[in-house]
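BUG-1410 | component: ligand-complex export | severity: low

The export step for magnesium ion jobs runs without errors, but we want the raw record kept on the ticket for reference. Input record follows.
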Amino acid sequence: MHSAAAAAAPIVALTDAAKHFGAVRALDGVSLSISPGECLGLVGHNGAGKSTLVNVVNGGLSPSAGTVAFPASGAGSALGAGVRSVFQELSLCPNLTVAENLRISHAALKGLRWRGQAREEIAQALDQVFPGHGIAADAPVDSLSIAQRQMVEIAIGFAPRGTEARLVILDEPTSSLDAGIAEQLLSHIKRFCAAGGAVIFISHMLGEIFAVATRIIVMKDGRVVADEPAGRFTRQGLVDAMGHVAPDAAAVEAARSFGETVVTTPEGLTARRGEIVGLSGLAGHGQAEALARLYLGATSSWRAPKAAPMVFVAGDRGRDGVLPLWSILRNATVSILPRIARRGLVDRAEESRIAADWKARIGIRTEDVTNPILSLSGGNQQKVLFARALASDAPVVVMDDPMRGVDVGTKQDVYAMIRAEAARGRTFLWYSTETEEVCQCDRVFVFRDGQISAELSGADITEERILSASFEMAEA
Amino acid sequence: MTLFARYRILLPVLSLAILLAATFYMQPRAMSYFGVNLLFNLAVPIALATIAQMCIIMVNDIDLSLGAFVSLVACVVATFLNDTPLLGLVILLALVLAYAALGAVIHALDLPAIVVTLGMSFVWGGLALFILPSPGGSSPDWLRTLMTVKPPFVPMAVVASVLIAGITHLLFIRSGLGTVLRGVGGNARSVARAGWPVIRLKALAYGCAGLFGVLAGMALVGLTTSADANIALRYTLLSIAGVILGGGEFTGGKVSPVGAVIGALTLTLAASFLSFLRLSPDWQIGAQGAILILVLTARLLFTRRDAQA
Amino acid sequence: ETSDKRIALSNNYAGNSWRQAMLQTFEEVGGQAVSDGVVAAADAYTTSENQATEQAAQIQNMILQGYDAIILNAASPTALNGAVEEACNAGVTVVSFDGIVTAPCAWRIAVDFKAMGREQVDYLADRLPEGGNLLEIRGLAGVFVDDEIHAGIEDGVAAHDKFTIAGSVNGDWAQEVAQKAVAGILPSLPEIVGVVTQGGDGYGAAEAFKAAGRDMPLIVLGNRQDEMAWWAEQRDANGYETMSLSIAPGVASLAFWVAQQILDGQEVPKDLVVPFLKVTQDTLDEALESTPEGSVANTVYTLDDAKAVIAEAK
Amino acid sequence: MKLLHKPWLWSWVAAAAAFALTVTLTGGSGASELAYAALSFGAFAAIVGLGQMLVITLGPGNVDLSIPATMTLAGTLALKTMGSDPGTAWLGLGVAILVGLGTGLANFTLIYLLRLPPIIATLAASLVYQSIAIWSNRGLRIKPPEGLADFATGRFFGISNVALVGLALSVVIWVLLERSVWGRWLLASGQNLRAARLAGIPVEAVRAATYLAVTVFAAIAGYLLASFSGGAALNMGTEYLLMSIAVVVIGGTSIAGGSSNVPGVWGASLFMFLVVSMLNSYGAGAGVRLILTGTIIIGIVIAASTRRATR
Ligand SMILES: Nc1ncnc2c1ncn2[C@@H]1O[C@H](COP(=O)(O)OP(=O)(O)OP(=O)(O)O)[C@@H](O)[C@H]1O
Ligand SMILES: Nc1ncnc2c1ncn2[C@@H]1O[C@H](COP(=O)(O)OP(=O)(O)OP(=O)(O)O)[C@@H](O)[C@H]1O
Ligand SMILES: [Mg+2]
Ligand SMILES: [Mg+2]
C-alpha cells in the first residue's frame, strides 16, 4: 500500500520550512511531503511545533524561510489545493447554525436555495463521519456541547464543499471527544485515506496514532527527529523519540485510607480528604456542569478569603482559564494574591519566587516567566493553569478535563504531582474524557444524562466497567 | 420559557404589542389610520438608523458617529440633493464609500472602532456645520411626497417598517453573503481561514451601515422638510438601544434586523406613551429612562441566562 | 369663549435656569387660567434631549391627544415644519415663541435677535469711545439663535470700525463651557476691552478673566441673577458699569395668552414681536430684587399685555 | 526604544504640540497662563476620565454614561445643602460623595440584578438622575460658600488646587492598579470575566466597586466644578459624556479591557483642552474646529496602534 501512494505526486511538499517568532524557533527547517492515501501521524511534546507546522502547511502562517508547494494540484494556495484544517482551538462561528457554518467555508454555495443544499451537505458529512450523531443542521452552534462542536468542525473538514478534500489536517481533534466518538472518527479517517485522501493527524494519545497512521513523524523543538512508516515504531520507541522518559504507567496503589467526606453534591458526588475522585462517562453528559456548579457554589463572586476553599483547573483554556494580556507570571499567581499581599498590596518578590518555583517544578517551556502567556504552546499554557491551582493551599482541587493537549511526558509528571498532593491530604475531583486518566483515580463516578449512573472504586475501575455504565441506560 | 430562548424575536414583538395596547387604551384616538401614522412616521428614520447601527454591531464594532452622520446626510439632502440633485447624489455616494473605507481602515490597522467613530462624529459634525451653519434647506419634493404618501388601508409608517424589516432580513439573515457577514462577528478568524477577505467584508458591513445611514437621513428630511447640523445627534444612542431592545447583542454577531426595526418602533412608541400619561414636567425626562429600564427588564423575566459566571 | 379649549406647551429643553423659569411661569399662568375657567387645560411637555426629531414626535402626540392649540419653543426653526404642518392640517393652532418656526401656518412671537447683537456693540461704542479689541462668546454652533445674534454683532462691528473682534469662542450657552473656552483663548489674545455675549455666559467670562489676572473688560451680561449679583458687587466695589439684556422667560405666558386669543376667534397677525428685557445700571437693583436667587430676570405677561402686543402688530 | 511603546506617549505628544502651536502664536507670552488654565480645566476631565477608565478596563461593553447626570446631581444637591453658608464645605463634599455612591449603586443594581447592558442601564438611569436634579432645585443656581469657591479657583505653588486634587486621585488610582490586589483583580476581570471568576476572583465585588468608583469620581468632579464656576447648573455635565470616553481611549487605555493607563488620561485631558484653545486662538470656526479635533483624535489612535503593532 505504501508504494502505490508514493508513486503519485505529493499533495504538499515542504522544503526546509522554518518559522521564527522572535527568538523562538517554532519551526526550524522541516522538509516533508504527503502523498495521496497517506495518513500521517504527527507527535511531539508540547511546544514541539506541531501546530506551527500545520499553520505553515495550510497557509495560516507564511514561513520565515523555505518553501511550501502543492505539486499534485499545482495550485498556489492551500485552499485551492484542497487542503482543509480542523484547528486545535475551536473555530466555528457560534452565532450561526451548523449549516450556516458550512456556508462560511463553502463559498460556492449560492443562489436562493443555498440553505437547503447546505443542510443536506452537512447532514451527509456528519452521517458519514459520526453515524448517529444527533446534531440538527439548523441548531445554532452555541447551543451545542463542546464535543458536538468538534464533531461539526471535523464534518465540515471532510465535507465535499464544491471541491474535493485532498488533505485534511486534524490538530488534536479528539481532545474533547469521548472514546466512542473518537473511534468513529478513526475509522472514517481510514476509509478516507483508503479512498485516496490524505490526513495529517496530531494527537497526544499514542494509541490513536498507532490505530490510524500509516506513517509517523516525531517532532522535537521545531525539527523532525523521526519519520518512519508506522509499523516501525513501538510505543516505547515513540516516547523515546519524543524525548521523554516516561515512567511505567503507575499502578494504582493499594487502597489508601482517606479522611472525612469534604465534598457532597446534590447529584450524589462525594469526595473524602486525600482522595482522587474521577468523573467519567460520555462527553457532554453533565460532568463539566456538575463541577462548575460545585466550584461556583463553594466560592463566592463577592468575597475572596485568604485561604480559598477550592480551586479550579480549566480545560477549555481560552474560555475558562487564560488571561490573555498577562504574562506567564501573573497568570500563574492570580489565585494566590490575597495570601501573598500585605495591606492590600502585592508582594512582588514573593510572587516572582513562587512563579519561578513552579516553572521549574512543572517544566513550563519558556526562558522568562515575564513573557506573555500567549507565547506558550497550548500544552504549556495548560501547565500554567495547573501551576495556578497547585500553588494555592486550597484543600479541594476541581479539574475540568485538565489534560487537554498535554503531552505524554508531562502527563506522567502531573499524575505524580497529583498523587503526591493527594497524599498530603488534598482532595481532587477530576473530570476526564480519557479513560487512562480516569484509571488514575481512587474512585470514579460515571455520568449519564446529567446523573450518576455508577460509582466504581479500586479494582472495579476498568475501561469496560466505565463504558458499560456510560451506555447502560442508553440501551434500555 | 425555552420558547423565548429559541425564538428571540418573540420578546421584542411582545413588548411592542403590549405597549401598543396600552397606548391605544390611553388614547383611543390613536387607533386609526391617521393616528397610527402620527405615532410611527418618525420611527421610520430611526428604524433605518438602527439597521445601520446593527450592521456595525454585527461585525462586533460599535458606531458612536451615526447620529452625526445622519445629521450630515440630512444637511446634504436638504441642500445639495434639493438644489443640484446630481451633485447631491454624488456626495451621498461618496459618504457611503467613506463609511466603507472607514471599515477597511479600522480592520487593516486593527483600530478600536469606538474611538475612530468617536473621532468621526466630530468630523461629520464639522462638515454638517459647513454645509448648514444655521438651520435651513428644504426637502426635495419627491422625497416629501414619498414620506407623506397615503397608501390605502395601511399607513405609510407601517408599510415602510414592514418593508425595511423584510428587505434587511433577506439581506442579512437569509442571503449567503449576509450569513458570512454575521460570521465575521461570530468568529472573524475562522471566516478568514476559510479564505474570505475579511477586510472587504468589514468594508461591506460598514458600507451597508453608511447606506442605511444615508437612507435614514433622507427619510428624516422627507418628514421634517428641512435640516440642521444637530438634527439627528440622538440617533447614536437611540440606534444602539434599538438594536439591544430588538434582541441583538453587542458582541458575537447576534443581531436581528426584524428585531432592530421593532426596537426602533418600541422606543418611539414608549416616548408617546409617556406623553399620554401627562406627567409633571419635572419627571418627564426621568420617566423616559424608567420605561427604557422597564422594557428591557422584560428580557430578564423571560430569557433565562446561564447561571454560570 | 375658550373655556373648553385645551392648550399644550411643547418645550425642547429643560437643562438651564431660563427654561426652568419659563416652565414655571407657564405653570403659574396656565394653572391660574384653568382654575379661573378661561381654558380647560394647560399642560407642559418637555423632551429629554434638545433635539428636533424628538420634539416633532411630541407635537404629533399632541395632535393625537386632541389639543386645540400648541405653544411651541422650537428646537429648530425649520426642522419641525413637517410636524407643525400636520398639526395645522388637523386644525390645531400653533403659536411659536423664542425658538420660532418658519411654517407659514404657525404664529410667531419673535425676538429680534439680530437687534440684540447689534445693540450690544452700539452700547460698547457709546461706553468705549476709543474702541479696541472685543471677545465674542457665541452659543451652540448650528443653532438659529446663535447665528442671528452673531450676525447682529458683526453688523455692529462693521458699523463701528473702531472695534475688532480679536477672538471668538463657542460657550454653548453654558457657563462652565464659556469659562473654559475663554480661559483657553485668553493667553493668546491682546488686551480685550469688551466682551459681547449671548446671555448666560457673562459670569463665566468674568471668572476666566479674573483667574488669568487680566483687567476686567466691559462684559455685556444676560440677565441671570448670578451675573447681576456679580455686577452689583463690582459696581459697589469699583463702579463697574455695564448692561444686561435677554429675552424674558415669561414670554411663554405671552404665547399662552396669544393662543387663547386666537382660539377665542380674535384676529391675530402671524408675526408678533416681543421686546427683549434690558437691565441697565439704573434698573439693576430693582431687577436683582425681583429675581429669585439663581434664576433669571423675568416678566410675566398678562392678557392685557397680549392684547397690547396684538394691537401694536395690526 | 522602550518609551516609544508606551501607549500614553501619543496623547502627551499631541498635547505638547497643541501647546507649542498656541504659544508660538503669541511669541511665547502667555505660556504659563495657558499651562495653568490647561491644568485646571484638564483636571475635571481627568477626574471623570479616571473613573471612566476603571469601568472601561472591565472589558467590552462596560462604560458609564451616567457621568454627566451624576455630576449635575451631586453639584446641585451639594450646593443646595450648603446653601452658601460658610464652613459647610466638608458637609457638601460628603453629600456629593453620597450622591456618587447612590447613583453608582443604582447603576450596578440595574446591571447586576436586571442584567441590563451597562450602556443602556447607565443611559436610562442618567435620565432619572437628571429628573431628580431638576425636581430638587428647579435649575436655581446657588453660590458655593466663599471659602470653598476660593479653594476651587485658587492655587498652591502656582498649580491650581483642582489640578492638585486630580493629581492626588490619580496617584491613588495608579497605586491601586499597579500594586494592589484589587487592581490585579480588576485587570483580570477585564480580560476574561469567566476565567477570572474561575480563578477565584470575586468578580461581582470588583465590578460593583468599579461602578461605584466611577460615579464617586464624577460626583467629586461635579462638586468641584460647581464650586469652581459659581454654582451648579442643570447642564453642567453635558460635555463630559463624550469627553470622559475620549480622554480614556486617546490616552491609550485599551477599549478591549484588561489594561489601563493613568498618565494617558492626563495627556488626553490636557490635549482636549489645548486643542480647542489652539483652534480658537487661530480663529477657526466651529466647523473647522470639529473636523480638526476629530481628525487629530483618529490620528493619535492610529499612531498609537501602529506603534503597538511593530512592537
Ligand atoms: N504567535 C506566537 N508567538 C510567539 N511564539 C509562538 C507563537 N506561536 C507559537 N509559538 C511558539 O512556538 C513553539 C511551537 O508552538 P506550537 O503551537 O507549534 O506547539 P505544538 O507542538 O502545537 O504544542 P502543543 O502540543 O502544546 O499544542 C512554542 O514554543 C510556542 O511558544
Ligand atoms: N464592544 C462592545 N461594545 C459595547 N457593548 C458591549 C461590547 N461587548 C459587549 N458588550 C455588552 O455589554 C454587556 C456587558 O458585557 P459583559 O462582557 O459583562 O457581558 P456578559 O454579562 O458576560 O454577557 P453574557 O452573560 O451575555 O455572556 C453585555 O450585554 C455585552 O453584550
Ligand atoms: Mg498545538
Ligand atoms: Mg497541544
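Assignee comment: Attached the raw record above. Residues B 62, 249-251, 305; D 59-61, 117-119, 193 surround adenosine-5'-triphosphate (ligand 2) (CB under 6 Å).
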